Amino acid sequence: MKTSIDGVTVSLENAPCPLCGGSRRRLVAIKFCLPIAACKGCGLVLADPRLPEAELMKRYRSPGFFAEYLASLHATPASYDREYLHSHFYVPLGLLGRPPRPGARLLDAGCGPGFFLRAAAENGWAGEGVEAAGKAVAYARRVVCVSVREGTFESVDFPAGAYDAVVLLEFLEHVRDPRAALEKARRLLRDGGKVIISTPDYGSLSRLLLGRNWAVLSPAEHLFCFTASTLRRLLVASGFEATGVGNLLVFNTDYTHALGSRRHLRWRNIHRRLERASWMRRVQMYEVRNILRLGGGAKRPAASGVVGRAARMFYGRLRVFLRGDMLFAVAAKKSSSGRPPAATAR
Q1: What is the spatial distance between Cα 150 and Cα 90, in angstroms, rounded to a whole number?
Q2: CB 245 within 8 Å of CB 228
Q3: What is the C-alpha to C-alpha distance for residues 249 and 226, in angstroms, rounded to an integer?
Q4: By percentage, how much of the chain surpasses pLDDT 90?
Q5: DSSP 8-state assignment for residue 233
Q6: Is pLDDT above 50 for 340?
Q7: 3-state class of 225 per DSSP?
Q8: Which residues partner with 4 through β-bridges?
Q9: Taking phi first (over 0 means left), then psi (-120 to 50 degrees means alpha), and beta for anything else, what does residue 49 get?
C-alpha cells in the first residue's frame, strides 16, 4: 500500500500486532491518508499499514515540533520554569518516589529536553536519558544540564541490570514495537526495579466525544493507542510483575484536529459543567490518590458499611465511561529470590 506525504509517494509497511501477533484488522478511521485499525485478535488499536521509520522521524526532528513542545511546557529556547515542571510531572514523580538507595539510577527513554530528568534529580535520583531529536538533546545538555545520549531507545546500548527505574512517559505510543521496548526496559532494570509509564487512553471520554478528530489519533506520530486492558496485557506479556494501571481523570478538551467544530464545542461545554460539579472534584482527587498508590504499594482502604459499598459501586460504574485522557502504569521486575514485590494491580 502507498500514500502521498507532502506530494511524495511513500510505501507503507505492515507489521504483526505486538500484543498477540495477529494480522487481521478492523478499520477504525483514516486520517492524513493513513489507516488506523484495531487488531481483531486482541483489540489493540494501531497504525497499520504505517509509515516507514525514516518518514516517522522527520516530524520529531523538525524545528517546529521542538518549538511547540517547549511552548507547551512554559519553556523558551534559553530557559524553563522549574516550579511548573514539578507540578506538571506531579504524578510520575509521585510514582517514582524517593531513591531506594544512595546513587539509585534512573533512565528516561524518549526524554525530550530532559525536563523530567531535572525534576527527578532534584528529588535525589541519578538520572540519564536517551532522545532521538538532536535539538532536544542539545537543549537538555546546554540549558537543563542533564546527561542525555542521542539516539533511539532501541538502538543505544545500556548496561543490563544497571537501573532502579526506567521511565517511559508518552513514549510507547510512538515506538515501532512497544513489546520489544518493554522487554529491553526489563533487561536494564535491577531485580525489583520498576518501569513507570504514561500513555494516552483510547477509552477516554475525549475520544468518545471527539471521534476521529481526537488529536491522539494521529497515525503519522502515534503508532499505537492503548486501553487499560491492552496496556496491562502488554506489560505482563513483556515479563513484568505487579502490574498496576490507572486512569488520570484530567482532560484537554482542545486537543483535537477540528477546533471550533460542533463536536469540539459540545465537548467543551460538557467539560465546563463537569469542572463546576463538586462531585467531579472529589472523584478527581480520589483517582489521583489511587494512581499514586500504584507506586508505593499502599492498599486502597476497604469500603465499610452499606453507604461505603454503594459509593464504591457507583464510582466503579461511573468510571467505565468517565475516563480521562491519560493512563499511568507501574510494573516491577521480578526479584532474584523468585518473589515479586507487593502487587499493586487495580
Answers
A1: 26
A2: yes
A3: 16
A4: 72
A5: H
A6: no
A7: strand
A8: 9
A9: beta
pLDDT tens digit sequence for 211-243: 999 999 999 999 999 999 999 999 999 999 867
In this predicted structure, the answer to whether residue 191 has a pLDDT above a threshold of 80 is yes
SS3 131: strand
Domains and CATH numbers, the chain: 51-332 (3.40.50.150)
**Total residues belonging to the chain:** 346
Confidence at 319, pLDDT banded by 50, 70, 90: confident
| pLDDT tens-digit series, residues 52-68 | 888 888 877 777 778 88
**DSSP, res 50:** B
CB atoms within 10 A of CB 130: 20
Q: How many CA atoms lie within 13 A of 47 on its CB side?
A: 26
Average pLDDT, the chain: 89
pTM recorded for the entire structure? 0.90
- Is pLDDT at 298 greater than 60 in this prediction? no
The pairing of strands 326-332 and 189-200 is antiparallel
Map grid coordinates 526524554 to a residue: 111
Range 195-215 burial, b when 16+ CB lie within 10 A, else e: bbbbbbbbbbbbbebbeebbb
Residue corresponding to grid cell 511513500: 10
How far is residue 303 CA from its own chain's centroid? 30
d(CA 173, CA 162): 25
- Strands, DSSP E only, in the chain? 2-5, 8-11, 25-31, 34-39, 45-47, 105-109, 126-131, 147-150, 163-169, 189-200, 224-225, 241-248, 326-332
Report pLDDT for 64.
78
- Quickly count: other Cβ atoms within 10 Å of residue 283's Cβ: 17
Burial (Cβ within 10 Å: 0-12, 13-18, ≥19) of residue 257: middle
> Cell 515479586 appears where?
340
**Residue carrying the nine cell digits 471520554:** 205
